[in-house]
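Consider the following assembly input.
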Amino acid sequence: MRLGLVTQFIRRESRGSRGRLFFFTICLAVGVAAVVGVAGLTGAIEDGVAAQSRQLIASDLRISSSFDLPDELDEFLAENPGAERAGVRELMSMVSLPSSDENPALDTRAQLAEIKAVEDGYPFYGELVVEPPDGRTRLDASSAIVAPELLTSLGLELGGEISLGGASFRTVALVVDEPDRVNFSMTLGPRVFLTGEGLDRTNLVQFGSRIRHRALFSLPNRTPSEVQSLAVDLREVLPGGQNLRIETRESAQAQIGRGIERVESFIGLVALLSLVLGGIGVAQISRTWITERTADVAVRRALGFRPREILVLYLAHVVVLATLGSLIGAAVGATLPFLAPALAPEFLQADQISPWQPGAILSGLALGLSIALVFAIPPLTAVWRVSPARVLRAEAEPLPAPRSVQIISRVVVFLGVFGCAYFQAGDLRFAASFTGGLLVLAAVLSLVASGVIGVSTRLPRAGLSPYLVHGLGALGRPGQGTSGAIMALGLGVLVVTHLVLVENRLERELDNLLPERAPTAFMVDIQPGQWEGVLGLLDENGATQIESVPVVTARLASIDGVSIRELQEERAGEGRGGRAGWALSREQRLTWLEELPESNELVEGAWWSDPDLGEVSVEESYAERLNLGLGTELSFDIQGIPVDMTVTSIRTVKWESFQPNFFFVVEPSVLESVPHFRIAAARLGEEPEARLQSSLAKDYSNVTVIGIRSIILKVSGIMQQMALGVRILAGFTLLVGIAVLAGAVSSNGLRRAREGALLKTLGLTRLQVVGFFAVEYALVGLVAGVVGVTGAYVASHFFLEGVLQLEPELSLAIPLAAVLLSTATATLCGLAANLRAVFTRPAATLHGMSGQTA
Amino acid sequence: MTARIECIQLVKRLSSGEKVLTILDDINLVIAPSEFACILGPSGSGKSTLLGLMAGLDKPSSGSVQIDGHALETMNEDELALMRRELVGFVFQSFQLLGNLTARENVLLPLELAGVEDAAERTDQLLSDVGLEARGHHYPTQLSGGEQQRVALARAFAPRPKVLFADEPTGNLDSETGAGVLELLTALRTSYGTTLVLVTHDTHVAALADRCIHLKSGRVDRDTASEQVSLESTPQ
């Protein structure tokens, strides 16, 4: 077939089809906008991270440890001419106002802060931006640069003094931007910058203090791949190298990139869902389109067009419409990376992302076109069924579609959706789960919709209002695309309701996270000699449920005689690095207890049963991760001294009890004489907790208080913001569902006009005609809403119980609201699409049927 | 350009609920090249069904239709479409113009489909032949019934078909307009030498034909061709 024939068909077919054009493009545009928006934003962040990769670790090479760094790093420095080193130490500590007799009220304020002590040279890349700009030059052993929110919470002005670790510091500048702190990570407190000498003035650097030691290296004479090789060598050469965290800018970038990719895979599929729904809309519109063109197709077949030639003509038109819709959607979606910093400034800053993402636009266009074609092909294969004898006899029986055509069209849909999902997620398993899940969902929804429609159309109608009779009859009217529209809208309702139900449940879970008797505050880094005093302060402030346990820091040296390094290499070789590897090399915290704690339950072995052994009890999932069992011999390195123990029991732990719990609990006689510190937990009211924080900051400044309430608030806040992003995407799904519904109802315009004309001829007023249509569409929306919320209820139930392991306890108000909204939306959409039919004079409509097609 | 049409023991049955209706029962016909044959009969006698079978628009339950020796029942849908594209033209009672094409585009369509080189010139000539050279840019809804049927005529003759099938071409027209259309149809037929098979219930239309085939209850009741042969063979 000549191209000219195709282009002419497209041009001619576009005449008088503004309705189809509009809904077709809307169905695709919304989905493409979501897909391009997501891809564009994640691409913008990734590019931004790549462009600032050196700033991620503010150096070429960064070595971190919870212990002092090995002295051998000095040799490393010497071996690399031109290299520079800057030390950084990070820790959490309480910051308060210095004691003041003049204004005792100020004494009650204390704030948990993230302390960062930096040496000259930091940062090697990027900039520590402060206000005033020369503030960095005034940072010395007696001054601090602080985050603005710290001053706010302490009620302090810049220039005022803060107290931390028993020393006072004058605030000389505010932190505006820090190069190696990724904005979208969770922080427990505002930042405080000190010099190394400043930190040494405090009492925070003590045995057992939880300090993260970092050495930053600038290696200007090394290429990135050379730095990567150096990192590998250092891990081999440095003492305890396998316990050090050694990062290059590539590895840091890759880690963030992996995190972004995981998020992108998930939200990308949510966005794809709205595009797939748009595809259902395309299928609906195509089905109605080809039904309206049946006579046209019959004439073409009579004139000698082969079915596949007619299919090509209609598909060419689909391509044009799909391109238009995709372009509009891509244009809208492409604006998201530009707008994101303004919409979420706490997560993103404009100078950290690269908003122009042509790749995202192109992939959105490709996906939009693909989805349109995939979903248009099955309904358009109806051209095979149109008998050319229809030109002589309208009631001519349809021809059977060739079996090959039926099979191919189904395969096209399946492979098309799978291909798009794989293109979007980049992961075979994700793509397969998405496709399979969608097909199952569509089948179930379709079944449920057909069932509900079947039941409602078979309801006895005697005695019902004529409006209801008409509406119920219209529900089940064949060939009008109602069930497809119900399915599409129902799917949109399902997705949004499901997300809201789950989010609502999680919020309630977080609100009720603290059990009645749970502690509200944890205190860490308590030196043994301080415990009596701390206990006294707790009693003074009315604390209850006070628990305190000793803590010894250690590292695993070997398991059953096999060194940790060998085990790590073995697991890495088997592809079982990751969490298992981390569990082997991480710093372990051991405690010793006489009695089994309330929140623990033995599942194997016995509690302190063999006095000849150095006994240790291991938490069940941790034991699984490390492949430990009863009788396993463990060797721990405790401050340079090897201590051997044998696993004599395995236990489960109720972590949600918020009691101090440990992976390893040791029999008391093994570690009692080892240097240790204590942690404590207690339950206090909010005000007494604030007073306690202040007292501890004054008298025991090395003790850090972690308020559980504020952490839960912070987590809740972050979850709400993330949920908002997902809800916005789900909103796209709903929007497409509405567009599909609107497309379906408006494509029946001719029938609707005829109906309206007939009803008016029978004597109904325009308002009564509106009432007839309103009830019909309300029923469509009601059925869609019921189908959608039923699916959402079931999906939420499975998700909460099966995945999150929570009791569902789902809200009823949310599904009810969803059904009402669905009903109202369908009614408004349907009426808006058919107002013209209501107000056209009957004669004009009834005379409008003659011998020409379409 | 002309063709011979042969129907051999043609039967067409249709299901109607639980019943099976025999629409055509053992039809045997030969229509000679360039012949103008009229099919008449009361409503429900199977006229349009016979036309559809002869044109390859439908398939018989049994029997055969051959156009120039090519058996239509052995062809698949694609082959039938190609056959219609190359050999057959149609004129319908309800005109069957494509509503979103102008008059000119409707006439041009079969020529574009066949890939004819001088499609535009032939289209303009045909529109002139049917007296609509000034209305080519109008859509069917902007034309009267008679004008629409004339466009349909032009479209039917555009690919210079060997056979033209017309199903009650004047059925939706008043007598004066119908007479005009019929005159054009016969003129074009004569000009191109096309075999014409026309279904009608109008005896005035039938009077113009070379031969009349009367159907009754799905069978050939009378065939003036055989009567003429009989007349010629009867000793005077």
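The beta strands of chain B are 5-16, 19-31, 36-40, 62-67, 70-71, 88-92, 163-167, 195-199, 211-216, 219-223. Ask yourself how this observation constrains the way the partners meet.
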